[in-house]
Design a protein that fits this description.
single chain; 8 helices; mainly alpha; 68% helix
């Protein structure tokens, strides 16, 4: 591996975080996170119901549970795909700028775990409830974030709860 590439991967991790967190903003016609992402308070309300359902509350609304899971899984997938797209784009730029073998650079970047690129290192067996609990805990500690778009707060909550070494 080229000695230039490892520092570039570290730099990529710092640069990709905001890009991947707002990957959905690349959609045609989108101009602001607020246009695409509900406020964190709305997500919190539905996801509190989701956790109650997991605890056995039979009165929990199926629609609330479905909304929470849909938004949560959409955010997780968006961050994963966004980090991969950002990594490949960055790899292309590195290969051109430093006149490196593009195949070697792309292979290296493709071996990088998307979550590490984002700075989120949750346990491998993590499921939706762990992510929901982590972001809800982050919102409890930071109530000023309730009116911000959930896409931004979700990413920050996961980074705070599952930091990488």
């Amino acid at each position: 591996m080229s000695p230039i590439i490892q520092p570039m991967i570290l730099r990529l991790q710092n640069l990709l975080a905001p890009v991947a967190a707002c990957a959905a903003l690349a959609a045609p016609g989108a101009t602001r996170a607020q246009d695409l992402s509900p406020p964190a308070s709305e997500w919190r309300s539905y996801c509190q119901t989701y956790l109650k359902a997991l605890d056995g509350d039979t009165t929990a609304s199926d629609l609330d549970v479905t909304y929470c899971l849909g938004v949560t899984k959409g955010l997780l997938n968006g961050m994963r795909v966004g980090s991969q797209i950002g990594a490949l784009s960055f790899a292309s730029r590195v290969a051109v700028q430093y006149k490196l073998d593009p195949d070697e650079v792309f292979q290296l970047f493709q071996t990088q775990e998307p979550s590490r690129l984002l700075g989120i290192c949750s346990p491998a067996a993590s499921a939706a409830p762990e992510y929901v609990r982590a972001v809800l805990a982050h919102l409890e500690k930071n109530p000023g974030n309730l009116q911000r778009p959930i896409a931004e707060v979700f990413y920050e909550g996961l980074q705070a709860s599952f930091p990488c070494d």
